[in-house]
Structure formats: C-alpha cells, structure tokens
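Minutes, project check-in
Item: structure for the 92-residue chain
Input as provided by the requester:
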Amino acid sequence: MNNPYQILGITQDADNKEIMEAQKVAMMEKKFPLTEIHSAMRQLLDPAKRLAADFMYPAKIKNQKPQKITLDVDIADLNIDNISDDSFDSLN
C-alpha cells in the first residue's frame, strides 16, 4: 500500500474532518484507485492504524541551519577575580 497521507494529499497533523474532506477531493481527482483512497481514509481514521502509518511514513523534517547566538556583553566588563579555585572541582 502507498503512503495514505500522499494518497489523500494531507499532512500528518490533519484531523478527522480534514481526512474526510481529503477523501472526497481525492475521489474526484481520481489519481489513485477508489479502493486505495477508501483504504487510506479508513487507515487514518483508526487511531492504532494511524499510529502505524506515522511510523511507516514519517514526515520529512526540514533541516535548519544553526543560528548564531550573540551576547551583548563586553568582555572587558567581566570580572573573573571572584572565582575561587574550588569552583572548578565540581566539573570533574
């Protein structure tokens, strides 16, 4: 069976109402056989089968570039004289 989300043209966060509407649209477009469209709808309306579909056909996650973090602190204003030698013992 093909990806039910692809057959109905919906995302994984679609609710039951959107699934029913997508089924009607998919039946009118006739890109897939009617039996496959109906099977995809039934699979996504059943919570257990939908969970299985979510694992079988995971959503693609866009890779995001790491963002540069900037701090508005002047290094000259930092005072490290107050740090004791015992402060670094907890790091071991």
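Outcome recorded: The helical segments are 4-8, 16-29, 34-45, 47-56.
No further action items on this chain.
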